[in-house]
Structure formats: C-alpha cells, structure tokens
C-alpha cells in the first residue's frame, strides 16, 4: 500500500527519505486517478524496501501541490534524495512509471 503524504509529513516522508520516492497527486473525484491507483499500490508492494510510493490528495493537502506546480491530476513526481528528478502528467502505464523509476535506482 502506498504511503499517504500530506503537507504536514511531506518533508519527513519525501525530502528526508534516502530511497527514491514516487508521489501520486490525486483526488477522489478524478477518474484517471482512480485508473492508476491500483498500479501505484502494486508498485508500492513490488518496490518495498527499494523505493517509496506515496499518494497526496490535492483536496486535503494544497501546500505541496502548489509548491510543485501541480495543475493537472494525476501527476506523478519522482524524487531522489529530496530532489525532484522527473514527472509524469496524466494517466500512464505501469511500464512508463517503472522506466522513470529505474533511472533513479
């Protein structure tokens, strides 16, 4: 299961994390977000101990999405050692996510 990231725990969960982090910015009302949610949860299990997969609900946490310019959801941000390295905007495939993550491992 993916980690829940909020404005309150973002620094600890993402910036201070030594493993690569993939954050899914989503909202419950977003159809494409619901389409990729199972992929994110599946990858969280597959990469447990290697990378962190997290989800940030843009309706309940707005500071982090504003800071990173999230204007469309779903948006996936890829971090390594607290630094933003890559992103995917819109619904995507498991293969595309794995390819971006592989570059950070």
Keywords:
4 helices; five-stranded mixed β-sheet; single chain; 105 residues; Glutaredoxin; 26% strand; 34% helix; alpha/beta
Structure explained in plain terms:
The radius of gyration is 12 Å and the shape is globular. It has a single domain (3-102), classed as Glutaredoxin. The mean pLDDT is 95. With 105 residues, it is of the alpha/beta class. It has helices spanning 10-15, 31-46, 63-67, 94-102, and strands spanning 3-4, 21-26, 52-57, 75-80, 83-89. The two termini are 20 Å apart.
Structure summarized in a few sentences:
This protein has a single domain, classed as Glutaredoxin, CATH 3.40.30. It contains 4 helices and 5 strands, in the order E-H-E-H-E-H-E-E-H.
Note the topology:
Elements: E1 3-4, H1 10-15, E2 21-26, H2 31-46, E3 52-57, H3 63-67, E4 75-80, E5 83-89, H4 94-102
CATH architecture: 3-Layer(aba) Sandwich
Provide mean pLDDT, rounded: 95
Indicate the low-confidence ranges by residue numbers: none
SSE sequence, one letter per element: EHEHEHEEH
Please state the structural category: alpha/beta
Count of discrete structural domains: 1
Helix content: 25-40%
CATH class category label: Alpha Beta
Name the CATH homologous superfamily: Glutaredoxin
